[in-house]
Amino acid sequence: MARNRSVVADGAVWIWDVAEDVCPDGQQVVDWYHAVEHLHKAAMALYPNQADCSKRTRWFKKYKNNLYMGHIDTIISVLHKRGVPQFAVYFERHKRRMQYLEFRENGLPIGSGTVESGVKQFKHRLCGTGMRWHLDNAKRIVVIRAAVLGNEFHSLWQAA
After folding, report:
1. Whole-prediction pTM
2. CB distance 87 to 76 below 8 Å
3. pLDDT the model gives residue 77
4. Do residues 67 and 43 touch, judged by C-beta distance below 8 A?
5. What are phi and psi for residue 83, nearest 5 degrees?
6. Strand locations in the chain, DSSP E?
C-alpha cells in the first residue's frame, strides 16, 4: 500500500465527494494547471485591455509564484480588494488543496498529467476504429494492457 496517497482534480465539487468515498485518507490537490488557469482568468478580468498586457503579465507572474508558495490568502485578499471577488471564491474553496510547495516537498504530484497520459495508453487500446467491447471482455483487456505496459505480460501469461 502506498505511504502517501493523493487525489488530483480540477476542483469540481462532485470530484471531492467521490474522493472522500474512494480515497478518504488521500491528500486532495487541485490540479496545478487548473489553478493557474483560474489565476490567469482573474488577471484577464483585472487587466482586460490589450494596452495593459505588460501589467497583466507582471501581476500574473507575481501571483502565480504566490500560488505555488501556498500564499493563497494573499491572492484572495488582492482579488477582493481589486473588485473581482467572484475569482476569489475558487481560491477560498480550495485553499487547503493548493499548498503546492508543501505537496511537492512531500513527494505528491500537483498535476494530473501522468494519470491522464496513463489513461490514454488504455484508451488507445480500447477505442480504435470500429472496436466494440462487452464489459467483461473490456475488463480482461485492461488487465492484459496493464501487464504489457508494466512489462509483466510474460509472467502473467505463464501464470495463466
Report:
1. 0.76
2. no
3. 98
4. no
5. 85, 25
6. 6-9, 27-30
